[in-house]
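hey can u run this one w/ zinc ion bound, need the structure tokens asap thx
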Amino acid sequence: MLRKLRPALGALRVYKNPFVRFLDYFGFIRREKHLQIALRNGLKLWIRAGTSDFAIADDIFNYRVYDRALMHLTGGQVVIDIGSHVGMFAMAAAARGATVLCFEPLRENVELLNENAKLNGYERRITSHCLAAAGATGVVELFIERANTGGSTRFPSIHPEWQGNEGVSSITVPCVSLHDILQRHDLKICDCLKMDCEGAEFEILQSAAVEDLRRVRMMILEYHPVSDIRHIKARLEDLGFVVHLSGNPRILFAAWPALEVPETPTSRSPTVGVIRRALIGDKALMDILCCPKCRGGLSQAERGLACSACDVTYGVVDGIPVFAPAETQGHDVRVNAIKWKEFWEGFDWEAQRESYLLANLPHIYSHLGSIQPRDWILELGSGPSYLSFDLASKGIHVVSIDLDISVLQNAKENFSKHGREGHFVQGSIYRLPFKERAFDASAGIGVLEHARDIEIPIQELFRVTKDGGYTFQTVPHLSFTTFLASSIRFGTIPHVPVLEQLVSLVHMKILGMRYMRYGYEESYTYGFLEKVFRRAGFASVDVGLYDYNQTLWRNRKQLAPFFYRLIRMKFVGLEPFSDIAYARSVK
Ligand SMILES: C[S@@+](CC[C@H](N)C(=O)[O-])C[C@H]1O[C@@H](n2cnc3c(N)ncnc32)[C@H](O)[C@@H]1O
Ligand SMILES: [Zn+2]
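ok here u go:
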């Protein structure tokens, strides 16, 4: 009952005249009669009665099977739409400002697609190509069935109901490979590849070269029972994509980690630039944010935070601005993001808080110095943001930034549950989306080591710190302990010549980062840390052992005193066994 009710209720929500939907459903309208229907989101569509056209409109606008991709699209992005049918997805993408290249083999569909583009004023954003897509450019045989306007396929076995159906015939159509699409349109980056091509998705993705797939920032496709989708998933994951598979409907969504947003669309999510994204009502945060690309100011726009100079709009998800997608993240950062995402998935915020409170907070505070209630403090790579939470409890303005948005959503929810006020931002430490001198202080616990070039985030920290302000950071210390316990086992890369090359060779080149527990991670000597903070401009730099409650022996009580002495042991002025270093630097 409910299964029948949902589409019916959905029709009320989606179509301005849902009655037509019902008439078509029950076959009361003459077959193939062209109908112009209006959607509540403002789009208009030409469709053919008695065909699968209405069902496809339902998929896109009622069941929103592509929302997961649509919600990331903004002005100026480029979308490749393979199997564009009469352009319903293309229009949804164009409504969000994207430029869409459509590939559709059936002439009748292309004609209607062009009409639809015109009807909505998107002739300039949507271009159509009467072509199929396939593993290689050439020609292919397509099986077609008249009423199933979106079902034409090279693999008729995906439509068991076609067996013995006299209306099924075949035609030969020209086709194009993904490589040639990218090449012909001179696309360095494709922001979204959408495919609904009745089984051809497998060979398109299997035969695509790695360099071509790397150009695709996000893909969403309907897959068909032609081959095993898990092979495709594995291939994409090897390339650094975060991949989500759903079985009903059969959708694969893959994206570069920084783009990936965990939530599946809800009723709030934005099909087609219609339902607005939540804007940030956080005026204080708006005052210190800037565009991470050009560092210019941002303004609230319909779809998020806009930088007019760069002509980009950064999305806002659950009140959290999302900045990192604007950057091209390196492979190391992408692996990092995947590993942290997995680490934070299902993380029990409440249960872990106590131990963080005991293990870290006293030691962090012993270095932070005096903090005034009106200070602005940045917690870098904040994860669950426990430090931010504690600072917020003291009435301090805290901004928590992390690459992983789901851990921030989790933290944000817990902040509000406890009545604490925080500011959350998704972004990368490589390009902080904050204005110069925005913060009185900053802290990062176990974060900088994930940067391949630690100088960059330190320069960023210098830029966002007020004169006289300071930053407190902890990172793995390059010592015997970390070499044995982390470098060999987990590929923590010692930041000194020779060892650096050796561990990188083994863990990155040979083992493909497989055993690197949090992705890319380095360890540093005290001397190097001091130098690098000074080089970035910090005046006084204090480095030493981060005396937190070491996890190494938390569960081995008898050994604790031994380890405790070991890590503090000094030998010709060095601490050869200490495992975590801190650096506190004043601007
Ligand atoms: C060791 S965790 C620390 C979490 C938190 N500071 C704490 O003490 O619980 C490192 C965090 O850094 C984040 N991170 C890693 N690389 C990052 C990058 N390039 N930009 C922003 N955050 C990053 C990860 O997502 C992860 O949440
Ligand atoms: Zn900008």
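The chain is about 35% helix and 20% strand. anyway lmk if its weird
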